[in-house]
Write a structure and sequence with these properties.
Four copies of one chain form a homotetramer. By secondary structure, chain A is α+β, with helices and mostly antiparallel strands. Chain A is built from 15 helices and twelve strands. Chains in contact: A-B, A-C, A-D, B-C, B-D, C-D. The interface between A and D is large, with 53 and 53 residues. Chains A, B, C, D: Belongs to the acyl-CoA dehydrogenase family.
Chain lengths: 446, 446, 446, 446
């Protein structure tokens, strides 16, 4: 009995042009990227040897050049084919992709598994992220845009993002790095002292967007300023690279000792650097959630196939409830989470940054923490299911039990980099219990 | 930066006419049902005294008449106001509501908590369920429709659904009750022997739709036939009523000893009764999932309010992470599950029964088992949070710690009545691993 | 290869005299208590009808007299047989049982299921608890011992324990009830004002041991005094009884309005009542943990037997991993928890109250919260397993799905009454992280 | 009130001579092993560089020689000091340690963290395991004992254990490798064909104890025979080494093509090899459980210290319930599991192999699966707690976030190597539900 035709309906299907875009992307990957991956034993960067192939153990554990060159090459191909700049505004050669489309693309690519087309270990993808470009576009002077956006897209400017410090935890208002106004050699500017940690990409960056306190006291939201600091500035030292579960490292520890920058190095308004740092936090969290979901779906799918294929005593492994039920649990979550991500992305697309923060911050954090946890659990389960009958099938089926499994460790990383699970939960709780957000007034009256 | 206007978008907002319908429903409840509940100490049926007020302990634990009369009265009011028959086809005075609208209404009502407008303990609601009517409409003869649909809506026919038996578990093909063709007093018909258990509503029913094996052997899907058996048929005995966590009982245990019915009592085709029994299994499972979700949301909301209001040592209870984080977990699930229910309902609205079974059975089961479990967990958490500081607030705030908490026990019941959690998971697994459903061919080739 | 005979060994076997005591207890129950339970339809107090049989719905939900009289009768039989006073000192006719033996006995009795010999709903047991006697023995004057210990054992004094209030939460130092020195009719004494809630046994008590602030301010540990207040004191009113999941209620809400007691009513030192209240907190928590463990073991055992017996489609239910694995999880926990309870009890037996608080408080709380949670989970699982194939076996096998399942609700109660799970975890954390306890100095230096 | 002195008591304290032995072991490690670890940058094998320092990436991922030489050196020192052979019988220079003492030692060493004294990654320890020696002692001929026990202890015989195959899963009776009687060059013997996988230590072994079917059919317990096959036998090929999460690898994949061995190579009785393979399965599982527990305790302790030390915003991290409560859960489990391990070890010490299998197999599996899972969870939580405020403290405090964290990956390995979690649970279930073990008769009658 079809329902009343006069009743309003809903529609949960992906828009047809997006479905078609995913198909084009698949074709492009199959025709242009997969052959490059298959060439010259480039598979060594993706199979069980990949941690070793990517890591220059004796140079601080940094990525090897041949590995990063291959990534660059694939990005250039994707740029020529029109995919790489998808999320950029049209003025920079992009298509102004938006959050919904980006989320669907991130899920789609991560669900395909690991490859030269997409690699969660270092956020490489044929469809690029450009938070740095968007940040300069939003807050930069015309000169800064000219230098850093144009330069970035042409490849002669590379920006690192210098916010985190060893001891301030998740609350950047307690940062220790500080800058004072000064004049050096007749040039008005700032002298910076302090240190940063876990700064990604510094080994190839030409500049660091550095956040430092210029006035106010620890805990003040106002008083933090952003600076462009060139890599070769005097007093700017890369002390070390931090080794993690997930090698190679590109997590630099930096110190700044009497580093001078001219006033033109200031990004945005003096003392208002923190909002710059937080501009794309929601976009990044959602994008990460989408990638985690995709990776979880990959693990689920591989587990299903393996459990059907594997017949330890003549009977399919998948006939065991101990195999079936955990996959049912994971799969149900993946179905549900996918919808929350798509809904949240859709709503973000119609809101300003300020509205997103006020009305949608809890939903973004829900997507993020659930996605990252789900992915870790799905990877853990996939390994457990494959291990029940240890075999080379494990490698063949795409979950290489190497020391650098992107399945295990990247989501693990995700559970930290955009705010740990606990930080996300704290944020959601603040909305739910009305300490911030739309229910603040209502619940405070209780 | 708003996304590319040429890109297709999605829309997750409820249709405006549905939002408006919910508002009308709220107004109706406030104006017509709430006053009736407030009258004549009718609150005794809903506050901490409700188990005792509803139960006739000394008459087998059946519902008391004044309780069931009050329910009837509220349904009549709702029928006059045009709400009660919402899901029925227009030919029977309904609005042909459909699965999406019904799901949204079920969530909405359960989220309001417990009251004369909606009570999960016995599936009473001002917006009715009519599985029996729809079943007769689909499979009945013109005479049966005349008698049982018209009679049902006028109140002189009440149908019970007689499928479950004590020992066949969840697989009705192993049922023991059987019927043989016979002629009695010159009338062609059937003689039925066997027994049924957990038959709801039998104490007020005029007829039981009884399922019995007429040919084939245990385990055969074919060979089960449905009969209308009048309550006063000779040999039809209500042996007892089963007491449960959730009193009053209306779960009768029945025996049939040489019960004769004429051939006109057969519903549908001989031997094809099982599909009749299963006709609305997906609709029922989804409706139940929606009610469970609504009840979970109620528990979450009450917990949030209580934790803000309660200040055990001058500080709000809600400042504790041990209070916050479990609510964050539950709330995230509620957000996600809501979308999966709405999506599944929307898809069901565009499909035939056969298509639903083939392509959507796993999603329905996902909604069902997750919803019922979520509800139990939310109720458990609500009780735990309220209990942290035992107080009369518990009753005031709508989670009466009485011996018949609908919060605790109804969802518990839900975890059984439409197929236990394990049964749902088994079904989902069958789809996921390709033993049934759309991936059957693909995954069997592995 | 047997190990080196010179090496010291351990011994985890129960002492033989304790094993033999359990056997004597079983014999006594079989010969003296079981027949009484079987007589005069006394089974109505234990089968599915028990909530109704025990509850006087129309008198505030209090226990019926015939129910409490039957309990008294069984206790008298047990006293004559020498079991009832087991834990009391020999001077009061007991055997000075100690914590280890009491824990083993509590586990043993609860593991036998529900009966007139032991009922967790109201802590009735043929082997009694006597916290009140021990409290008066420890802190009372000779006159008080004469009146309240002798009177209690002879049955003409019944004490309720009046500590909890509606709004101070788990921290009694914030209590609102207060007493001031006064002289009335020439008698020096105290006038008490305030209120108490959740006071068990008040309906049959002759006196309430009431805790009230006599000096100091909210939050001070010192300044709370204990008083014997007779039930018939002027101004002492039982306002109501709180209905819970677990009927009948014996949880009174009390008010005290200008209630006068003479100075001789003071128990212990003025201002030092709080340590009196806390004297047996560890003993009670451990005893409760033992009962919870026993009940969990009962649920596990019933589930195992049912799953072996039940053959829904000709195959034993227990062949399903979805049945097996949850029982494996529960059973492993029961094995482990049993040892922690026995070890903790053994260590308590060799320590003073002060040493227990300093060195063992975390272990006691570990036993308590894990035990109570395990019991709830085991009951939940038992119900789920039995429900998979709803059947009368459920009642037959001893887990009656009645509205007053001791399996479900008593442990639920346990999760509150001696400090909620969260309170226990907070306490354990304080020891683990060195905020109190033996590691305080070491960890504070970090 | 101390308990009745006539009552039998229990004793859960470690025997004093064992406590004293642990202390001697600590002294030895501090004086002899720690200095060696501190020398010549040997720390590189244990700090964040250790995966790279240990792995010869370009030689199949095998352990580097300097790494394995260092391990040998430490074992020699331990042998001289009288610790290494602790578990061996006195006839071979050991002390016949027994299961209880070995379990306590394993817990103690793993609890100290990672070092040259004990390394779970490859089961290296200053107190050695000697399953191979005990196996030859139990089943070998006098000549075999002379060659393989004496040779092993002198260092000129090294044995690998060749049971597992790529596709038979956990049931070795389905192995594919087979041997036929033959005469070659006048010597009676056997010709072996087949393959093995995940064979540890093969890269340094002189012989493989190879299990092959000599008669019977797949699934038969009888018909599998054990052979000593020299590494240089013709047709015996090491095909590859499998890379895992946990590098370096020492997991060889072997093939056997017409490999001839003389009759004297047979270990034990022909056709009765399977019991040989299973001889020490319980001892190994328990030892592994003990190591897992120790590692879990290490993670818990490090987390506690870090959370006290770390003050992100001036307040200790450990004041958060989201930090405290998970540690409370883990710590409670560690306390409980420790007792079950000690009890099981104590009971094993008084039983024959046959009795252990019949009466204790479920307890051993309980220890094993719970221990391995607990360890994984404790490591995961330790990482999560440390990550909340990413910092160099992570490395300093002994949980180096390197790509080869023994905390994360070794227990992960444990969840596989002695039978996966699922295999353990299946085994426990078989006992609990009476399919095997002491309750078989009782429960089969239901």
């Amino acid at each position: 009995m079809p329902p009343n035709p006069d009743h309003g309906r809903m529609n949960f299907a992906l828009p047809p042009d997006l479905v078609s875009y995913l198909s084009d992307l698949d074709t492009f990957i199959a025709q242009k990227i997969a052959p490059l991956q298959a060439r010259d034993d480039n598979e060594r960067f993706f199979d069980h040897r990949r941690e070793h192939s990517r890591t220059n153990w004796d140079a601080g554990g940094l990525p090897r050049d041949d590995w990063e060159d291959l990534l660059s090459q694939s990005r250039e191909i994707a740029d020529e084919a029109g995919f790489y700049r998808f999320c950029l505004p049209t003025e920079y050669g992009g298509q102004n992709g938006g959050n919904l489309w980006m989320a669907v693309i991130r899920i789609h690519l991560a669900k395909k598994g690991l490859g030269l087309f997409n690699d969660l270990q270092n956020e490489h993808s044929v469809v690029g992220n450009f938070s740095d470009v968007l940040m300069v576009r939003e807050f930069g002077s015309p000169e800064q845009k000219e230098e850093f956006i144009k330069g970035r897209l042409e490849g002669n400017r590379v920006l690192a993002f210098g916010l985190t410090e060893p001891s301030h935890g998740s609350d950047a208002t307690h940062m220790f790095t500080h800058a004072e106004k000064t004049t050096r050699d007749g040039v008005q500017g700032w002298v910076i002292n302090g240190g940063k940690m876990w700064i990604s990409g510094m080994h190839r960056a030409t500049h660091c967007i550095l956040f430092a306190r210029t006035h106010g006291k620890p805990g003040d939201a106002i008083g933090i300023t952003a600076f462009f600091v060139p890599r070769d500035a005097k007093g700017f030292v890369i002390e070390s690279y931090e080794w993690t579960f997930n090698m190679p490292t590109d997590h630099a520890t930096l110190t700044f000792t009497d580093v001078f920058v001219p006033h033109s190095a200031v990004l945005g308004q003096i003392g208002h650097g923190l909002p710059i740092a937080q501009t794309f936090v929601h976009e990044n969290r959602l994008r990460q959630a989408a990638s985690s979901l995709g990776a979880a779906m990959y693990c689920i799918e591989e587990s299903i196939k393996y459990a059907r294929k594997r017949k330890p005593f003549g009977e399919e492994l998948s006939t065991n409830q101990a195999i079936q039920f955990p996959i049912v649990e994971l799969s149900t979550q993946a179905e549900m989470l996918r919808l929350l991500i798509l809904k949240t992305a859709t709503e973000m697309d119609g809101m300003t940054q300020k509205e997103i923060e006020r009305d949608l911050g809890d939903k973004v954090s829900m997507c993020n923490f659930w996605g990252n946890r789900l992915c870790t659990q799905a990877a853990d389960r996939a390994i457990q299911i494959h291990d029940l009958n240890t075999s080379t099938d494990i490698i063949v089926s795409g979950i290489p039990l190497s020391s650098d499994s992107p399945l295990l460790t990247s989501p693990g990383r995700y559970r930290i980099t955009e705010g740990s699970e606990e930080i996300q939960q704290r944020k959601i709780a603040a909305y739910l219990f009305g300490y911030v957000g739309p229910r603040k007034a209502e619940l405070s009256k209780l």
